Amino acid sequence: CLLLALPVSANATERSEEETAAAYLFEMGIMVGDQSGNMLLDSHLTRAQLATILTRLNGNPEHVQAEQAYYIGQCKFSDVPEWAKLYVGYCYANGLMLGYDTGAFGADDGVTPQAACTVILRYLDPPDVAWDYSTACQAALSLGLTSNAVINQKEITRGDLAVMIYRALSVSHSETPEMSANSLLVSSY
Question: Which of 48, 79, 28 is nearest to 158 (CA)?
Answer without folding.
Answer: 48
